[in-house]
Design brief:
heterotrimer, A alpha/beta, B mainly alpha, C alpha/beta, B: mainly alpha, MetI-like fold, elongated, C: six-stranded mixed sheet, four-stranded antiparallel sheet, 10 helices, 10 strands
């Protein structure tokens, strides 16, 4: 049984008096110890998916479908069970660590608090465990760090502290929502390496939410490309990069400038990314897709499931050769 | 098309205000209308009464009864609404006209100017409205609405300036203001055409809240005899009418007090709703 | 115009922020930087946070005063802050800027149309109403925005559209050079590509020069012919973009290059110093 199963999730939010769909017919699974990347642009619904998994959807959200964590339905949990789940089963790393740490308490307080309150540690036991965790994430002089305040640490160091706090529990699933987007690129490399290492060491399953396809392919085993609230394609990471079956996946990779050479003109996708609410009838990508035909505009494609891959495109088979990138991932 | 826009605006308005807010708007509208149409609405004279009708109980003749001088309470309440609206309005205007430019200039220049202006405002802050009013009344040897309004207006300058300054400081360093500087617009036109409109919602919201406070402050001054003088009607005066209260006649004090509470509450609610929306 | 004179040049530019109050020491935001930006070219400045790249931009625009060094824009010295708005206006016709955050770099209460009209009337006060109107439409076309999109307030526009308005605003005064400070960093990948192509087209059409500041090496490779790499206020390395990125001489540049995700990349962990 998969650790996390999401089946036909639909989420709509109340905006200005009407319900707007944000996620439509989203389904995927995460096995124990597997790393999955959710890649998408604005409006793709990737962050809302994470919130749905944690039971943190905003007031008034309408949800249908199923989210099963360890076989238990998240959507049917009450507040107490949700809190238990967030303490024991799922750990989350957010984009901006400063927004998620109390600025007037020390790092030590932050780390030790959940140990003492939620797991019944004694103060000294919590302290030594915290020091161990800080060592594991590579922070120098851990004893001193415990006494420091968040504003004294750089973004990268603070993110490491957040990661340390997720290691403490027995959580089997790690949700990382753009964990390195706010960090410098050299720090990003370090922090992602750390996350990846720890994920493997502790056999954590991980969902990495990011807009950076290259980053996701380098870390994750499986990638789901989201657009307008639904999964366009989901496959093994390197395969998705080297042999995309969906025009959007292909275009997303192609429109990035390359660090190795200058193009005369970048490949672009016309129009702007949109949310499920604004998406056209038929295939949600049809009004921006250069390969769209009449059928695409009227009929929404279903998931074409193959072994360990799925794609939502009418023309996936026709387009096979046309979508290959110029540079392969080795 | 225009109907759709109007309709959407009405829905938007209704959502923003909520039921309490709409009630508040209606209350304010009623009070303003009454004060404008006072000469036509008041059944009897608000200044002169029949001595023989002293403390007449509510009847067809005197709908809410008569006060210690035989004057119709209802008519006095109706006309009293004028000073109760005009007074606070003038206070707000004084506070805004002096406070807002000072605040924006202070926030823009920063440094020493900011400090000096800040200290100057602190100085004004030290003088409560009552004290300033008493001072002005003594100096000018004249009581009435004008000295009261000037005194309270001056007292409200620091408060308006403080709030505006915080908001202006936030706007000051936003990229769109920097973009205007880089274009080469004059500081004056940046402050007036860009900063002020973006602060306007906050200023309006705070002003509606301040309205209520100003009303109470002026009423207090009337109560103390430093503002409106008899026979002119004023809600504050009516609350403090020792001529009635000493003799156990609470009618006009209660009615005037209720009206003050309603007006202050209505303006505060509206101000709150507007500023809540701002933070949304 | 003399094509030999660089449009923007900086000489030993330096910025030091002295300690304030009870703080010790001060911050050397920029140690010393020199560069020449030629007409129609694009110069890149690459660095991470704290590198000083934004401080350089601020000094060029006059938002910060250099501690030492000279700045020359369009042949005129700019090392001293502008006195008076007429000097600032003149400078506004020489050098403009597009900011990073499309959500705060436009006045939320102003439509794109009104914003452009205001700028055009500031710099070209003799134009008639219809001339101003056609110029606004022309600018809109240049950045790919229709009249409908110009007539609404920023909150109705997407990030990419707002950035187009910001670019139009920068072009409105017909500057000789534009500073783009992380101008595409806040945009979705697909929109970023559109805006980068747009910027290249504009450069080709108008001959404007760009000073492109970014932390994103791939974007710099795409846009800039010459690049300066900064770290903690110092210039670490500079040269033609292709050479610097393909054959970095300095360790920092190499480290920067190796940190960028791309085909075949995987993150590496270094020991924290």
């Amino acid at each position: 049984m998969a650790l996390l199963e999401i089946k036909q999730l639909n989420v709509a939010l109340p905006v200005g008096g009407s319900m707007r769909p944000i996620i439509e017919d989203l389904s995927f699974e995460v096995e124990q110890g597997q790393s999955v990347g959710l890649v998408g642009e604005s409006g793709s619904g990737k962050t809302m998916t994470a919130r749905a998994i944690l039971g943190l959807l905003p007031e008034g959200a309408q949800v249908t479908g199923e989210i099963l964590l360890n076989g238990k339905s998240v959507l049917r949990m009450d507040q107490h069970q949700l809190r238990q789940m967030r303490v024991n089963d799922v750990a989350m790393i957010f984009q901006d660590p400063r927004a998620h740490i109390n600025p007037v308490r020390t790092i030590g307080d932050f780390l030790m608090e959940t140990m003492i309150i939620n797991h019944g540690y004694s103060k000294s036991a919590a302290r030594s465990r915290s020091i161990n965790l800080l060592e594991e994430v590579g922070l120098p002089q851990p004893e001193q760090q415990l006494r420091r305040y968040p504003h004294e640490l750089s973004g990268g160091m603070l993110q490491r502290v957040m990661i340390a706090s997720t290691l403490h529990s027995d959580a089997k699933l790690l949700l990382a929502d753009e964990p390195t987007t706010a960090l410098d690129v050299t720090i990003q490399s370090e922090v992602m390496a750390l996350i990846s290492e720890l994920q493997i060491e502790h056999s954590l399953a991980m969902i990495l939410i990011t807009h950076d396809l290259d980053l996701a392919v380098s870390i994750c085993q499986k990638i789901a490309v989201l657009y307008a609230g639904t999964i366009m394609e989901m496959r093994t990471a390197v395969d998705l990069y080297n042999d995309p079956h969906h025009p959007y996946s292909s275009a997303l990779a192609k429109c990035r400038p390359s660090i190795d050479h200058q193009s005369d003109r970048l490949v672009t996708i016309s129009g702007s990314p949109m949310s499920a609410f604004d998406a056209p009838k038929g295939c949600v990508f049809s009004d921006r897709c250069e390969h769209a035909v009449d059928n695409c505009k009227t009929e929404r494609p279903g998931h074409t499931q193959k072994t360990d891959s799925s794609v939502r495109c009418h023309r996936s088979d026709d387009l096979r050769g046309a979508l290959v990138p110029s540079l392969r991932w080795t | 098309m225009t109907f759709e826009i109007f309709n959407h605006w009405m829905v938007d308005f209704r959502q923003r205000l909520g039921w309490l807010g709409i009630l508040a708007v209606v209350a304010v509208a009623v009070i303003v209308t009454v004060s404008l149409l006072a000469p036509w609405l008041a059944p009897k004279s608000h200044l002169y009464g029949e001595l023989g009708d002293q403390f007449a109980p509510p009847s067809i003749n005197y709908l809410l009864g008569a006060d210690e001088n035989g004057r119709d309470i209802l008519s006095r309440l109706i006309f009293g609404s004028r000073t109760s609206l005009l007074g606070p309005l003038a206070v707000i205007l004084i506070a805004l006209i002096v406070g807002v430019p000072l605040a924006i200039a202070s926030a823009w220049k920063g440094g020493l100017s900011d400090v000096i202006i800040g200290r100057f405002l602190d100085l004004i802050f030290c003088f409560p409205p009552v004290l300033t009013a008493a001072l002005i009344v003594t100096l000018l040897n004249h009581r009435g609405l004008v000295p009261a309004v000037v005194a309270v207006g001056i007292a409200y300058i620091p408060w308006t300036a403080r709030i505006t300054r915080s908001a202006a400081l936030r706007e000051r360093f936003l990229p769109y203001i920097t973009a205007c500087e880089v274009q080469g617009f004059s500081v004056f036109s940046i402050c007036v055409r860009h900063m002020l409109p973006n602060l306007s919602r906050l200023i309006v919201a705070q002003s509606t809240i301040a309205f209520g406070y100003a009303l109470v402050d002026i009423a207090a001054l009337s109560f103390l005899g430093l503002a409106i003088q008899s026979p002119n009607p004023d809600w504050g005066l009516m609350v403090g009418s020792t001529g009635s209260i000493a003799r156990g006649e609470y009618g006009q004090a209660i009615f005037a007090g209720i009206l003050i509470i309603i007006t202050v509450a209505a303006f505060s609610i509206i101000g709150n709703r507007i500023s809540e929306d701002e933070s949304n | 115009m003399n094509t030999e004179t660089p449009v923007v040049s900086a000489n030993h530019l330096r910025k030091f922020y002295p300690a304030r109050g009870r703080q010790k020491g001060g911050v050397l935001a920029v140690e010393s930087i020199d560069f020449n930006l030629e007409q129609g070219h694009c110069l890149g400045i690459v660095g991470e946070s704290g590198s000083g790249k934004t401080t350089v931009a601020k000094m060029l625009l006059g938002i910060e005063t250099p501690t030492a060094g000279t700045i020359n824009v369009a042949g005129r010295d700019r090392s001293i802050s502008a006195r008076g708005s007429s000097e600032r206006r003149k400078r506004g016709r020489e050098l403009q800027m597009v900011f990073q955050d499309p959500y705060t770099s436009l006045d939320p209460r102003q439509t794109g149309w009104s914003c452009l009209r205001e700028v055009i009337q500031l710099h070209f006060p003799d134009q008639t109403k219809s001339q101003v109107q056609s110029r606004i439409i022309e600018l809109g076309n240049q950045v790919g925005l229709g009249v409908d999109q110009l007539r609404v307030r920023p909150h109705s526009l997407s990030g990419g559209q707002r950035q187009r308005v910001a670019i139009a605003r920068a072009l409105a005064s017909k500057p000789q050079a534009i500073i783009l400070d992380e101008a595409v960093s806040g945009l979705d990948v697909s929109i970023q590509a559109q805006i980068l192509n747009l910027l290249v087209d504009i450069k080709r059409e108008t001959g404007v020069a760009y000073l492109f500041i970014s932390h994103d090496l791939a974007v710099i490779r795409q846009m800039a012919g010459y690049v300066i790499v900064m770290e903690s206020g110092r210039v670490v390395e500079e040269g033609e973009t292709a050479r610097v990125l393909d054959n970095p001489k300095e360790n920092y540049t190499r480290m920067l290059r190796e940190s960028v995700p791309g085909p075949g990349w995987s993150p590496k962990r270094r020991n924290l110093a």
